[in-house]
Design brief:
Its cofactor is heme b. By secondary structure, the chain is mainly α. Helix content is 66%, strand content 0%. It has a single domain, classed as Globin-like.
Length: 114
């Protein structure tokens, strides 16, 4: 899936916005954009970065049973997301959208415990 991270990441974020359309307001680069979500280069870049990191985390977890991320990276992500207004309840939406995206992409390999 990592080789298709751009496409899959965009699919994920479109699914998030479908579930919670107000989530678009959390992205400063979407607020005044005249470009459709599907073609927005900043959304595409953000989505690809997120999906690559998610894939790398899964690989780390499968290989070693844990995910290693530098503390400074986690702190920066936490501060950025907090300042943007991402609340804990939003993470459940992201989790659901991510699992649904993966299920669509690899339905034959899918199981909720994979």
């Amino acid at each position: 899936m990592k080789k298709n991270a751009g496409e899959l990441g965009l699919k994920l974020f479109l699914k998030i916005f479908e579930i919670v359309s107000s989530a678009k307001k959390l992205f400063s680069f979407l607020k005044d954009s005249k470009v459709s979500l599907e073609k927005n280069p900043k959304l595409k870049s953000h989505a690809m970065t997120f999906f690559v990191q998610a894939c790398e985390s899964v690989v780390q977890h499968r290989k070693g049973g844990k995910v290693t991320v530098r503390d400074s990276t986690l702190k920066k992500l936490g501060v950025d997301h907090y300042k943007s207004g991402v609340l804990d309840k939003r993470y459940e939406v992201i989790k659901f959208a991510l699992l649904e995206t993966i299920k669509e992409v690899v339905p034959k390999m899918w199981s909720p415990t994979s």
